[in-house]
Amino acid sequence: MSIRERPLLCLGTGSKMTDSSEDIPPATQNFIIPKKEIHTVPDMGKWKRSQAIEKLVALLNTLDRWIDETPPVDQPSRFGNKAYRTWYAKLDEEAENLVATVVPTHLAAAVPEVAVYLKEAVGNSTRIDYGTGHEAAFAAFLCCLCKIGVLRVDDQIAIVFKVFNRYLEVMRKLQKTYRMEPAGSQGVWGLDDFQFLPFIWGSSQLIDHPYLEPRHFVDEKAVNENHKDYMFLECILFITEMKTGPFAEHSNQLWNISAVPSWSKVNQGLIRMYKAECLEKFPVIQHFKFGSLLPIHPVTSC
To answer: Is residue 104 packed enough to be buried (19+ CB in 10 Å), middle (13-18) or exposed (0-12)?
Structure first.
């Protein structure tokens, strides 16, 4: 997919990416295997206060190839094909080797920690489901690579429109191939069954567009003609391929958003919604893992 470039905000936080050189850990840093820290609803307070490109594409291409090598199995249940567990077991075994192809040898100590986020980013092998918490883990994976200096602030457009976009393609293939269940879906009241971040970045990409307005994303002709260039419209196309019936019925939240007058207002609203519906929801964040690169410790005041 060719996606037109536009400078973006970092991970939907509303602030620009900081120069990753300022966040590079010292050579003496002790990396740790990330673990769950959000065990109860009151623990959510920790999260809110926390400090929290070709090689990457090649890594994702490998995951894609493994799907081809692991076809669905015949089973009575239509959803949650158990072949996904075979695919996931391959990733679980090879994750550190894959990450090692991206991380330079002098940062090899970071590999086990960073690899955890890659494994968390592709869904749950027990439930055979996928949702915004897994998507957030991939954002965390990219954030870790920024913090150790593998990715730089100058890479931000490529990070979104090349790497993250390729991740989306692989996740969509996983969802279709293994009929994965949406994790924590709110059904018709949710924005989307599986993703959220591409709507934020995709709406940012469309700000000040000369002719495409929010109302056009419910226009089948406009979507078909422009989806290859715009991340938001590619998301809409995937939804219409996966769901049947009137758009206003199966994607009511998006239908309502199409009435917003400008992409900038759509973008601002989606950032607020992501914070409320994903980052501040215990069922999502309870599964997030924290380590030395993304610690649970409170931010130190200046």
So the answer is: exposed
113 in Cβ contact with 140 (< 8 Å):
no
Dig out the tokens for 180 from the structure: 């994965």
Q: Are 243 and 289 in contact (CB under 8 A)?
A: no
pTM of the model: 0.82
CA-angle at 7, arms to 221 and 17, nearest 5°: 135
The residue type of 186 is: Q
Distances in Å between the Cα of 78 and the Cα atoms of 68, 69, 125, 181 are 19, 20, 16, 10
Q: Which letter does DSSP use for residue 134 in this model?
A: H
Closest CA to 290 of 23, 32, 4: 32
Instruction: Give the C-alpha separation, 1 to 121, whole Å.
Output: 21
Q: 């519906």: which residue's tokens?
A: 277
What's the CA gap between 49 and 39, in Å, rounded? 16
What are the backbone angles phi and psi of residue 290, rounded to the nearest 5°?
Answer: -120, 145
Residue 223: CB atoms within 10 Å = 21
Q: pLDDT tens string for the chain (302 positions)? A: 455 555 444 444 333 444 444 455 555 577 878 777 656 656 655 544 433 399 999 999 999 999 999 999 999 998 999 999 999 999 999 999 999 999 999 999 999 999 999 999 999 999 999 999 999 999 999 999 999 988 887 788 888 988 999 999 999 999 999 999 998 665 555 788 899 999 999 999 999 999 999 999 999 999 999 999 999 999 999 999 999 899 999 999 999 999 999 999 999 999 999 998 888 878 777 778 888 888 877 766 54
Cα–Cα distance for residue pair 27/8, rounded to 1 Å: 30
CA distance 38 to 222: 43
Residue type, 210: P
**CB-based burial label for 33 (10 Å; 0-12, 13-18, 19+):** exposed
The type of residue at 22 is E
